[in-house]
Amino acid sequence: MKTTNKVAIYVRVSTTSQVEEGYSIDEQKDKLEAYCKIKDWKIYDVYVDGGFSGANTQR
């Protein structure tokens, strides 16, 4: 009997330079969802962290 792995996806961007370099939240999510599909993993949930840099404590 084949077992199905359930996984959660966590995506995060904390700087505008990450977005400019192709690490946007949507791009990360798309790539991770595609990877899960290849592996035949069931996505349990997607967690999105709009991101605050740890260097900036003023939130």
UniProtKB/TrEMBL annotation:
<keyword id="KW-0233">DNA recombination</keyword>
<protein>
    <submittedName>
        <fullName>Recombinase family protein</fullName>
    </submittedName>
</protein>
<dbReference type="GO" id="GO:0000150">
    <property type="term" value="F:DNA strand exchange activity"/>
</dbReference>
<dbReference type="GO" id="GO:0015074">
    <property type="term" value="P:DNA integration"/>
</dbReference>
<keyword id="KW-0238">DNA-binding</keyword>
<dbReference type="GO" id="GO:0003677">
    <property type="term" value="F:DNA binding"/>
</dbReference>
<dbReference type="InterPro" id="IPR006118">
    <property type="entry name" value="Recombinase_CS"/>
</dbReference>
<feature type="domain" description="Resolvase/invertase-type recombinase catalytic">
    <location>
        <begin position="6"/>
        <end position="59"/>
    </location>
</feature>
<dbReference type="InterPro" id="IPR050639">
    <property type="entry name" value="SSR_resolvase"/>
</dbReference>
<dbReference type="InterPro" id="IPR036162">
    <property type="entry name" value="Resolvase-like_N_sf"/>
</dbReference>
<dbReference type="InterPro" id="IPR006119">
    <property type="entry name" value="Resolv_N"/>
</dbReference>
<dbReference type="Pfam" id="PF00239">
    <property type="entry name" value="Resolvase"/>
</dbReference>
<feature type="active site" description="O-(5'-phospho-DNA)-serine intermediate">
    <location>
        <position position="14"/>
    </location>
</feature>
<keyword id="KW-0229">DNA integration</keyword>
